[in-house]
Write a structure and sequence with these properties.
about 170 residues; 8 helices; mainly alpha; about 10% strand; 2 strands
Length: about 170
């Protein structure tokens, strides 16, 4: 049975490692003055500077209203700003402020310390192989229309809404 295996189930192991990394980072980041939700939003915004709220909500897998509350607080404290989209008057683009730069640099330092701690005992070749393997796994699981057919159970029809989103009829 899957749940009684002596070796860790792959998905649970990946989830546990991710959770533990976030907890360790969060402990180190407390003195920065941001909540975990806020530093996650800032980190993703740094990677997607100029994105609109809906796009960032998709990246973070949050409801737009939930993200909106985080963005309001970050804007009120001067970490981010909303700028009008030159192509669409109804859309606002999200940008980091100068105030965020030193915080992001500090967060980068904490990421490095946490990463080094997590990878302790692995030599450079093992680290490179691990990184490559994780990138391959992520690519394998990236949403794409051709993956829709393999995501459902054998013999079960994909719901019409999902089929349409996947580019079907």
């Amino acid at each position: 049975m899957l749940w009684n295996r002596p070796d860790p189930v792959f998905g649970f192991l990946v989830h546990d490692i991710s959770r533990m990394l976030r907890k360790r980072f969060d402990r180190r980041a407390r003195d920065i003055g941001l909540t975990k939700s806020q530093w996650i939003v800032l980190a993703h915004l740094a990677r997607h500077e100029g994105i609109h709220q809906g796009g960032l909500a998709d990246v973070l897998e949050l409801e737009p209203a939930t993200l909106g509350r985080h963005l309001d607080r970050l804007e009120d404290t001067g970490w981010i700003e909303r700028r009008p989209d030159p192509a669409d008057r109804r859309t606002w683009r999200l940008h980091l402020t100068e105030k965020a730069a030193p915080v992001l640099e500090r967060m980068g330092d904490l990421v490095e310390v946490t990463t080094q701690e997590a990878l302790m005992g692995l030599d450079a070749e093992e680290r490179e192989r691990l990184q490559s393997s994780l990138l391959t796994i992520r690519a394998n699981l990236t949403d794409r229309p051709e993956a829709e057919a393999t995501d459902r159970e054998p013999g079960r029809e994909v719901a019409p809404a999902r089929r349409m989103a996947a580019g079907g009829d």
